Amino acid sequence: MSDLKLEEVSPVYLNGHSNFLQSGYWAGLREKTGWKSVPLKLTWKGESYPLLVLVRTFKGTLSLAYVPHGPSVEVDPEEREYFIHKLSRDLLEFVPLGTFFVRYDFLWGETGEDSLPEPLNFKGISKAPMDIQPPDTVIINLNQSENDLLAAMHKKTRYNIKLAGKKGVVVETGTESDLDAWYELYRTTSERDRISIHSRDYYGKVFSMADGTGGNPESRLFLARHEGDLLAGIIVLIDGKRATYLYGASSNEKRNLMPAYALQWEAIKAAKAAGCDSYDMFGIPPADDPEHPMHGLYRFKRGFGGDIHHRLGAWDYRYSSIVYPLYRIVEAARKFYYKTLRKR
């Protein structure tokens, strides 16, 4: 009997594992944006794990498969090559015939600012031209008191949290009716920082489908106001024992009042009160590099304490030696456009 087995299951099986990108909620959301979800149960050495595979089909003939932040199973480094090859070959039973590669956003990695994971060096597996999910992040341990959480922060972060309160910044929990106002802020953020965003309808689905029922995650919208002016807002997802900061938007006005710091602190306290044991900042640059265009984001998120996690990021297992190289060329060109030309 093989030590790896796959079987198709209901999307509900995926819920409740504190990994929203591998949840039934995420499967349902992506189904509404043109993907097909394939919910599976992965059994490895007698232990079972949820496995969400997303499939995108082009013109009815060619397809790609994508595993966001999965598989959620720890595999010994010396067994990873066998595991990936076996899993990828077995997946062919569950994906369309024309699937020419599968992309994994592996969670495997290292913890620590200077502890980078060794790249994979396996036959048939290559680093993707671009990461889909952020491979580097800060995760805050919530199994400590609020005083200890504050003490672990950078002194400037503590100062800015206090400053926001002294200046009259108030943080409140919003509802779905507040999403239009939040999205206008997000559009402002997109224009200022030159980042790509989805439509208002997409974020409405992200928020409304995470309703906390049936094992689904719960979405929280935190809004920072000052004298009636909406200054900033963030969307946080609470899934089991983990909270994840997904999206942040801010105005160009009154930025000196530090609303972003007040928002994160209130969200961290709310996650702790909800029973979470960790808060994922969900994405930082790979190093404390002043030359990096997102260095300010690194300093901001790092200021709240926590541990830096460096993951392997996105890697591709190719099924076709003809179609896959052509797709890589197209994807590399797309990356150049969004990362270089659009930033100018």
How does this model look, in words?
- One of its GO terms (biological process) is regulation of cell shape.
- Keywords: Acyltransferase, Cell shape, Cell wall biogenesis/degradation, Peptidoglycan synthesis, Transferase.
- This is Lipid II:glycine glycyltransferase (Peptidoglycan interpeptide bridge formation enzyme).
- InterPro entries: Acyl_CoA_acyltransferase (IPR016181), FEMABX (IPR003447), GNAT_dom (IPR000182), PG_Glycine_Bridge_Synth (IPR050644).
- The protein has 344 residues and is of the alpha+beta class.
- Helix content is 31%, strand content 30%.
- Strands 1, 2, 3, 4, 5, 6, 7, 8, 9, 10, 11, 12 and 13 form a 13-stranded mixed beta sheet that branches.
- The longest helix has 19 residues.
- It is globular and about 60 Å long.
- The model has no long low-confidence stretch (mean pLDDT 94).
Quick overview:
By secondary structure, the protein is of the alpha+beta class. The chain has helices at 24-31, 80-91, 146-151, 155-166, 179-193, 200-209, 259-273, 295-302, 323-341, and strands spanning 4-8, 36-44, 47-58, 62-67, 99-111, 125-127, 136-141, 170-174, 218-226, 229-239, 242-250, 278-280, 307-318.
What would you call the shape?
A: globular
Estimate percent helicity.
25-40%
Could you tell me the CATH topology label of the largest domain.
Aminopeptidase
Low-confidence parts: none
Measured between the Cα atoms of the first and last residue, the distance is 56 Å
Structural class: alpha+beta
Q: How many distinct folded domains?
A: 2
- The level 1 CATH classification of the largest domain is Alpha Beta
The CATH superfamily of the largest domain is Gcn5-related N-acetyltransferase (GNAT)
- Give the total of beta strands: 13
Radius of gyration: 21 Å
Count of discrete alpha- or pi-helical segments spanning 4 or more residues = 9
Q: What is the N-to-C succession of helices and strands?
A: EHEEEHEEEHHEHHEEEHEHEH
| Secondary-structure arrangement, i.e. CATH architecture of the largest domain | 3-Layer(aba) Sandwich
Mean pLDDT rating: 94
* Multimerization state: single chain
Largest sheet: 13 strands, mixed
